[in-house]
Amino acid sequence: MERSDFLKSVPLFSDLNREELRQIESISGEKRYRKNEIIFHAEDLGAYLFILKEGSVKISLQGREGREVILRILYPKEFFGDMALLDGYHRSATVTAFEDSKAVLINREDFLNLIGKHPEVALKIMSILSKRLRKADERIASLVFLDAHGKVARSLLDLIQEQGKKTEEGIVIDLKLRREELSDLAGLTRETTTRVLKDFETAGAIRRERKRLIILREDIIKREAEKSL
Amino acid sequence: MERSDFLKSVPLFSDLNREELRQIESISGEKRYRKNEIIFHAEDLGAYLFILKEGSVKISLQGREGREVILRILYPKEFFGDMALLDGYHRSATVTAFEDSKAVLINREDFLNLIGKHPEVALKIMSILSKRLRKADERIASLVFLDAHGKVARSLLDLIQEQGKKTEEGIVIDLKLRREELSDLAGLTRETTTRVLKDFETAGAIRRERKRLIILREDIIKREAEKSL
DNA sequence: ATTAAAGTGTGATCTATATCACAAAAAAAT
DNA sequence: ATTTTTTTGTGATATAGATCACACTTTAAT
After folding, report:
1. What is the mean pLDDT of residues A206-226?
2. What is the pLDDT of residue B46?
3. Does the pLDDT of residue B115 top 90, yes or no?
4. Nearest-CA distance from B41 to chain A in Å?
5. Domains plus CATH for chain B?
6. What is the pLDDT of residues A85-120, one digit of tens each?
7. Nucleotide showing the shortest C1' distance to residue B186 CA
8. Which helix (H) or strand (E) holds A163?
9. Listing from the earlier edge strand, what are the strands of the sheet with B94-97?
10. For B229 and D30, how far is CA from C1' in angstroms?
11. Are B136 and A131 in contact (CB < 8 Å)?
């Protein structure tokens, strides 16, 4: 896809006119990342704003001994960047390509400049950040209130919402995500996640296939996720 | 304190001039809330932006049977508002006065207007939101990685950072917060929180007094909080 | 195709923390 | 000042989920 067409389709820029978009095009670059490649690390400076063009990325924090939490997964048209970009403050999360991905990069200067000239863009960013904040807050509540089944259910609902495709078979999630990744998303161990998925399968709520997951009964999953929340 | 002096001291408005501040003063109102009074509920519309002038408020989500998580506590000069204010979307948290409090209110329209005219304000909001998002993300990691001692330690560090006062005795936290509130902040039960505090006291890291908490050895608390993160 | 590596399912423990149940202490109400 | 209510400490117990261990399966590498 042409970069200009892509930029036009990004919600962040939806209020800009042709000329303004062309300007962004001229100041932006593009980069590709291979699956599992680290796009940037917790410690790096927030020098660029990234807009994901293809693929998906995970934002995560790591604990000791290989433990990791996935904070969120982002899909095309969403932006990210060490949030130092916005608040000048550091120690943020790690961003890793979840699949082969492409991103458009705008450097910090140009981006701040853009915002100065286009308050609509700043408003959009505020809106997206507050949406993400709300999601994070709900996640905190899930971790405190829900048991293992509830946590897995919550994670599945997020995946459904972000990238589930409705088919006659059911809702298909075809990110190839390993048990371990799902468990990092739910905040559980791999083993517990496996056992929970088996229970869901036995209950007829999901079907597991080699590399996709099919949600047969969203209602059951929803009920689990709302048990205590 | 005069409202105009107060507004001038709010970081959100630090780039505005005298005239602009006077304008805000003219479009804003003021309200007082008694301790434990609900300022607004999860379901309410985001009609106003609130800027806390005196006291403190807690932002929380409730689960079943009286369970609750405190997402954050806000202090004077910080803003809040159903974030529907920004993203037009609902189902947010409940805000309750933690102590007797006063807030300045600006209605949605006027506020959006203000942002349109003053990109600096939008930038400040972006910056604050991304700071809150980062904090929420770290909290998610704490809940997944840390044990009870770590979680309590993390909560104490937050309190120290936001409102600890250094004295020769140690760092004093004089929010009168009950065990239950601290446990809602840490994501634990009241009983576990009590036991952890006792351990910290035995270790000489804190001293508990009738209505204040004194941190004697911040280093011990820090070590606990970083055990696995 | 065969071998190697990575990921998954599942049983058997073990343990941290929730839960339950009071008594003691403190705060609020009369 | 007494009584009532709320909050706190602390023991005893139960249990969900972590941890460990290993066979089995799938995917990747040669």
Report:
1. 92
2. 59
3. no
4. 14
5. 3-137 (2.60.120.10), 146-226 (1.10.10.10)
6. 665 455 568 899 999 999 999 988 888 888 888 888
7. C17
8. helix A148-163
9. B38-40, B94-97, B57-62, B68-74
10. 40
11. no
